[in-house]
Amino acid sequence: MSEQNSSLPDLKVTLVQTNLHWEDATANRAMLEEKIFGISTPTDLIILPEMFTTGFTMNPAKMAEPMNLHTTRWMKQMAAQTGAVITGSVVIKEGDNYYNRLLWVSPDGEVDTYDKRHLFRMAKENEVYAGGDKKIIKELKGWKICPLICYDLRFPVWSRNVDLAYDLLIYVANWPQVRMYPWDSLLVARAIENQSYVIGVNRTGLDGNNIVHSGHSAVIDYSGKVIFREIDNEVIHQHTLSKTSLDEFRQRFPAYLDADRFEII
Asked: Rounded to an integer, what distance in angstroms lies between the CA atom of residue 120 and that of residue 252?
């Protein structure tokens, strides 16, 4: 690794693990605004759960909004006032399609998006939402960050860190309590195989379909060590990630140099 990469600043991330009001975007924005304004120390990145305005709804005809309306504008306001990037997914309508769309909103008002590729067919998500076909890699303070959504976690090829394209892999989720073992295990696996920090942000509480969510939001380092995990409780957790430590680990153990080459078609 170059000296320039090794001298990159630390990245301060904030995870918001919370219960959600079922299909009530106004209530969720108000609740999250209070939590965000309660963050007492500066942060670079605030991560919200999947479908943070509605819960994991299969009723997009009722709940979807177009881009640059209420939630997009709210995220721009939150980002500008906190000086942090804010990300999480919402239900968006574009043309004739509905998307489970992650918004990446910068303090300067720039918005980028990622549409969930792997749609959870067991809840018939694939029948009401259109899937995405491209990842995004975002740069923040020199860090390369890849944000994905929930069920994407089960598909390692889509998450693969080819040529160290990213330093931090993020999953926002509404992952149910009944399947916490795969969530915990796969977050660790993604960190180990990709030699990257991994953050998972999940919700808590009972949703409108009587499905229980128990959080397990986590920060995992590049070696697979779990350095934070919160079970059941609502929490706002701040963590500082070290680029120097990441670079040194990749230098000591450069397994990425032997990774298989492939293309997704």
From this structure: 38
Q: What is the pLDDT of residues 134-191, one digit of tens each?
A: 999 999 999 999 999 999 999 999 999 999 999 999 999 999 999 999 999 999 999 9
User: How far is Cα 99 from Cα 60, in angstroms, rounded to an integer?
Assistant: 9
- Reported as a pLDDT band with limits 50, 70 and 90, residue 7 is low
Q: Distance between CA atoms of 150 and 4, rounded to whole angstroms?
A: 33
Half-sphere exposure of 173 (CA within 13 A, CB side): 29
* pLDDT score for 262: 85
Secondary structure class of 166 (helix, strand, coil)? coil
Q: What single-letter amino acid sits at 237?
A: H
Measure CA 49 to chain center.
Answer: 7
CATH architecture, range 10-256: 4-Layer Sandwich (3.60)
Closest CA to 153 of 188, 112, 121: 188
Contact yes or no for 33/65 (Cβ under 8 A): no
Tens-place pLDDT, residues 200-249: 999 999 999 999 999 999 999 999 999 999 999 999 999 999 999 999 99
Which tokens go with 69?
Answer: 């309306």
* Strand 97-105 to 138-140 pairing: unpaired
Find, among 9, 4, 40, the residue nearest to 140 by Cα.
Answer: 9
Of the candidates 119, 187, 149, the residue with the CA atom closest to the CA atom of residue 51: 149
Separation CA 101–CA 98 (nearest Å):
9
Indicate which residues carry an active-site annotation.
50, 116, 150
Structure tokens given for 105: 């909103």
pTM of the model: 0.96
